[in-house]
Amino acid sequence: MELQQMIHRRSSSIIKWIFVISILELSVGVGLAFLLPIEEKQTSSFEQYTSLLLGIIFRATIFFFIYIFFKHYRKIRNNTNTRTLLETILKTRQAVDHYIKFNIYFVIAYTVWSGLQHIVKVFNHKSIGEGILVTLLVIIVSIPIILITTYLMKHYYRILYRRLIHKLHDNYEELIRMEG
Fold first, then answer.
1. Cα angle at 24 between 19 and 29, to 5 degrees?
2. pTM of the predicted model, to two decimals?
3. Residue 23: how many CB atoms within 10 A of its CB?
4. Which residues neighbour 146 within 8 Å (Cβ) at sequence distance 6 or greater?
5. Do residues 82 and 179 lie in contact, with contact meaning Cβ atoms separated by under 8 Å?
6. Separation of alpha carbons 168 and 179, rounded Å
7. How many whole angstroms separate alpha carbon 3 and alpha carbon 80?
8. N or C: which end of the chain has fewer CB within 10 A?
9. Distance between CA atoms of 89 and 112, rounded to whole angstroms?
């Protein structure tokens, strides 16, 4: 029983850290959004609307994940039932996987959208030859940027979240052994 309580506390602590880190990530993102300059004169109302909409979707989704992490943390903290603890650990692992995938895919989609937006601007204001040249340059520059950014994000998440998830998995395995 004492070992089970220790695993319970460790699991609660790990989920609390996942919750805290996700809030810090959101805070940094919101802080950067306020610090980075916005070029309002060079963008159309459609581009501004789309950027605003994407920002709202991104932040709303991150808030949703923060809510899920907090809910799982409270569930573990307030419950001593082993079955509920096991279910919450599994749900937390799934939520973290979805959180990581969402962040990576959103950055890729936003980068592609920004590149396409730039290409459309060039085609609207320049000749077809310049448009094709810019399109090729955007593709040549965007692909390495997307690959490097994806690699860095995966590495960041592997270092940060995967270690926490691995510890949570170890707790899960230990609880399964105790139950069986």
1. 130
2. 0.74
3. 15
4. 108, 111, 112
5. yes
6. 17
7. 12
8. C
9. 35
Position 164, amino acid: L
Are 157 and 97 contacting, i.e. CB atoms less than 8 angstroms apart? no
Q: What is the CA radius of gyration of the chain?
A: 22
Q: CA-based angle 72:74:75, to the nearest 5? A: 60
Identify the residue whose tokens are 């069986």.
180
Three-state secondary structure readout of 2-59: HHHHHHHHHHHHHHHHHHHHHHHHHHHHHHHHHHCCCCCCCCCHHHHHHHHHHHHHHH
Tokens for 144, please give them.
Answer: 């390495």
